Amino acid sequence: MAIKKSDIYRSLWDSCDQLRGGMDASLYKDYILTLLFVKYVSDRAGQPDALIEVPEGCSFADIRELRGTKDIGEGIDKAIAGIAEANDLKNVIDRAYFNDTEKFGRGAKMVTTLTALINIFSREELNFSRNRADGDDILGDAYEYLMRNFATESGKSKGQFYTPAEVSRVVAAVAGVNRATSPKQTVYDPTCGSGSLLLKAADAADVSLTIYGQEMDITTRGLAKMNMIMHGREDAEIAQGDVIGEPQFKASETELQTFDFVVANPPFSAKAWGSGLTSDSRFGRFELGMPPEKNGDFAFLLHILGSMKATGSGAVILPHGVLFRGNKEAELREKILKRGYIKAIIGLPANLFYGTGIPASIIVLDKSQAQADRPVFMIDASRGFIKDGNKNRLRERDIHKITDAYTRQAEIAGYSRLVPYAEITRNDFNLNIPRYIDGSDPEDLQDIEAHLKGGVPNRDIDLLAEFWDVMPGIRATLFGPNPRTGYSDPLVEPEEVRTTIRNHPEFGAFRDRVHAILDGWAGQNAPLMDGIKVGEKPKDLIHTIADDMLTRFADAPLIDRYEAYQRLMSYWAEVMQDDVFIIAHDGWEAAKELREARKETDAKGKVKWLEEADLTVNKVRLVADVISPRLIVARFFPELQQAVDDAQAGAEELGREIEELVEEHGTEGGLLADALTEAGKLTGASVKARQKSGEAEPEETKLLKQVAKLMTAEAAAKKAAKEAEEALTEATLKKYPELTEEEIRALVVDDKWLTDIAKLIEAEIEARTEQMTARVRVLTERYGHTLPEMAGTAEDASQRVSKHLKAMGFAE
Amino acid sequence: MTEHGQVPKGWVTKPLNDLVDFLDSQRRPIKSADRSHMRGQYPYYGASGIIDWVNDYLFDEELILLGEDGENILSRNLPLAFRVSGKVWVNNHAHVFRPKRGIVDIRFLTELLEFQDYADLNSGTAQPKLNKASCKALQLTYPEDLKEQEAIAEALSDADALIEGLERLIAKKRLIKQGAMQDLLTAKRRLPGFSGAWTTAPLRQLCSQIQDGTHFTPTYVEYGTPFYSVENVTARNFDRCKYVTPEAHEAMAKRCRPTRGDILMTRIGSIGDTYLVDWDHEASIYVSLCLLRPGKSIDARYLYAYSRSSMFVKEVEDRSLPNAIPKKINLGDIADVQISMPIDSNEQAEIAAVLTDMDAEIQALDTRLEKARQVKEGMMQNLLTGRIRLV
Fold this sequence. Notes:
heterodimer, A: alpha/beta, nine-stranded mixed beta sheet, 19 strands, B: four-stranded antiparallel beta sheet, four-stranded mixed beta sheet, 12 helices, elongated
């Protein structure tokens, strides 16, 4: 079975649970990622595309043998050491020690903890033998997951910033790596962390670049090396050390080695950046000037420039401050700009990074086209993000919009433009983006004349031009001529705006046009979905169908193509990707599989289910990964579903009648008060008991009889509903294995994917309609009545109230 | 009312069940996920009003809705009983009543229901709830004469009309004030008699002092000298504040001492909100506020009026630390904020006078609105109990 990201994350979470208490949360990742690595290379060992050598006795299977034995800690360390030795990775991948009584406890405690840990990694969902990472950054994503959930909250993550995957993708896309022509060319990250940014940059090249990285933290450097191996980049050179004080890649004793491409996300505003720096270790990096003592941002920037070939390019993530801070940094900024090294600046949203809320920007560096008076391409991407917990995150559409604007050097109002050098000098080389790009919305101007004399200013109506272009007739329906030029009269009351728009034929036509575009897209792409074959790459499919979505919606009325794209991409990430993985891995037949929900049985034999069930049969939970029972029912058994609904409605109706009687007569002194249980409930038994007591008055007896009858009817109705439900479940269950491949395709492609995607586009149509409705309402409400009219209305009301007060006997 | 006094002559006391048909069984909730696929033109009502729009309806007549659950049953911040008409959908959080014809006037009954106190009928434990049985049994005292019902409803709805008319008038005046700022503070429109040049200058030239409050959190005391921070300015409320000892205040006041005519501006958390100091007592401010003391070259009231404009706010935002959390602007950047103004100080004063008068008018209307609300309350107390009769 294909591996789902969510399954991996759950296992990681469970693993962390085992480690809780023994160590600081920021250390979890060292142990968990090491085990993940050992599991991964063991699963791949012996296969044609094996990654590295796993010597005898050192595989994960061997580690499994140690479960429950007192030597387990030592055994794990030995196995890892064995792998390290066989692959020349000593002191690199063997930095996390499992035989550590401080972290895992002594004796039995250690045995239990480590055994539980190994059990989690033995789960079927972490079986990598049939799954290649396939462009998927499993270790990188796992690292990000652990950083996000554990390292940052522990407060001990200082200096350990993880670059979110989305930001890495933008950096990789703008660093100019696509210019690479030869595998001899190099890509370098001086502060490479777990190496994910480096890998993404290398992947952006059409050729297999040689990879260099340096990382200060020795354990993290080991993780980077593992990451490289898992991506088949075992020849990547990952050195360890403080890159400012001890750069590891040198051309000579006084010169740095230079690279074709450099990417980096250095620690933000490092205070002690210069602690390792001596007069011997400057390597000519600070000829433009020394950065301020207590802030390392420019030190890293200068290191990157110093490590870049004269024909090279790159991109670096730095805090916003580097764009506008004064003093030494202003001087350095000016000098770098004068040399023409800066090609572009991309302002990112705040709060993207774990461990810090400070906003950052991507500085795109390019020596290959350095020239005097170079203009700088600026993008203000600060408003394109989605909230995710307490952090912000770039969406697919945001990434696409940034890279698109960058590649085309497009001028988009309020978003991006090429800023001439002269304008930068006019601003004293201050690069603060709002000085160059005004991303704020235009001010909502109040027209006093319109407030006094009536009429809606045409200027305001014209601002809705994008809607009128599509539905010109609706404008004429909502607004008519006003005697004064430049103004229009609202023709409908604010409350009628919504109905007027929705009932207008042009609104229907707009909706139909969008539907037609979507149908065209579905027509084109459904065959591709239908045609998914075993062995195909899911990423290719989504790439094709999403690009087609972008192309087709380029001309769509009112629907932003990036929005349509985003909706598809989100659906892909949440639902469709997992489906396609399963089909591309095991074929269409696999889509109809029902499997038992994942469960764990504890030492006492108690079963703990780890998943929700789609169907429950004899208390066994079944999960349908691709085709949910709902889809089968809708296509094959609508009449059975109707029977269930009817039966349930009948039972509910009876239940409601009983409840009402209790509400009415169950209060103290009421006719049913004595038939209630201690807890104040009416039950079959409590009614019977009261009837038998013989204490009931005639009227009460009558009511009790009625209630008893209702209760019998309700019980029967409930039973009928349950039976109808069981019949439906049975029919559905029986249907699964009978599904033909054709039916599976219809269920998955038509009933699930295309239906869901159509709903998502429909939601966007609604959102746009709502936007137009809201603004027209505001305008008609705002200018629909003049000030004198309103003052008059208030005055009239005031006089009427005075009259009433007089009538009440209050003379003024 | 029935509990204490006599039932007024011609009035009767009956349970609500005798006055209306309950249509609760016809209402139906729709899950919000399902509603998202059936957006449309018909209002979807919940316990206290429209909560969504859907493409189908359940009722199409004049009805009264009464919120069935939610904290509003106790707090009564929103109307609990309201009239609906036309095609509507109602979910299971509002009771639906159809008043019986010839027995009760719908407008009167709505007012009467809104007037009731439901706290005693609350049957919910965690979440306040009015169940159907207690609604049915709700005892209402009312005039049997439909004419009298109508007269009461008429009086109360006129009182409502006055409240609504004033609310709208105030909203209108606020928009006009905004328009006046957009016109007068940009020289787009000039006051008669003025044609002199305008200029732009940064606050550092216009103010004799630009200083933020203390950077050290003082020790608060129960009574003492007021100590203001960003919340006081944003809430425009200086009555509820923290206090420091007079000694601590004196130490802080060496740095900055707000006095009448100074402008306080928010600079951390909220940025660019201002207040013109209109008191004469001693007070200190926190680091989150900045004191601007207008110099000789600018009319203090003009500067204050300008600081309330969107132009000023935009200047402040552009100079604030980009995307910092919380929002923040540094002292030096505040000093750079550009103010546009006529050079002639008489024109400054006249513009300030126009805008100040507009503010004063709005404030007077606000007071009048509050009064109208209280009058309506008084009318309900008298008319819906029969204490005062209109016939």
